[in-house]
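Hi there,

I know you've been waiting on this one. I reran it after we fixed the sequence typo, so this is the corrected version. Both the input and the resulting structure follow.
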Amino acid sequence: MQEFNAVLDLLAMLASDFRMGGLFVLLVMAAVSDVRFYRIPNWLTFGGMVFAIIYGTFAARTPMTGVQNALGGLGTGLAIMLPFYVLGIMGAGDVKLMAMVGAFIGPYQTLQAILFTCIVGGFAAVTVAIHRRRLGHMLANVKGAAQGIVVSGIAGIRPSGTIDTRQSIGKLPYGICICVGTIAQVLAHQLGFV
């Protein structure tokens, strides 16, 4: 019976919380765009950020709390994902999308959403590698990247910041992973699992 009540609470939250409904719509739009064009439009990410900051300002107990929460989440998403863009692992649209997510859900939930997203991304990468019969190649790439990180950390050598695309197993539209990971985190949070 508790599970049923939790599901009803979840549905009520999705129906009454315009912010979460807006976030889910924007995430699905970004995922579809990423699959079709390997691109997440700036109007979607920046528009979502502005909406989240304005909505958070008026929906919070005090406007300053809402602004701090939105900007803290935006900064958290940006700070954690930006190094992956610098290293050439993901695109700028993915970074901006995660920053937008942070503006909607705040810094603490953004950390959780990034963790959920990385788990979904790992499963997606393995699935794509198996489908393309390139799993061994992918594992060799992961090993090489891990060794490079360890060596650069120990020796203090700065990584080159580029990845040889000839050794890549292909592109993965990470907007899907961000969409699924974030929605899973929001639902898990609403149901009390995290």
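Quick highlight: Residues 2-132+170-190 form one domain.

Best,
R. S.
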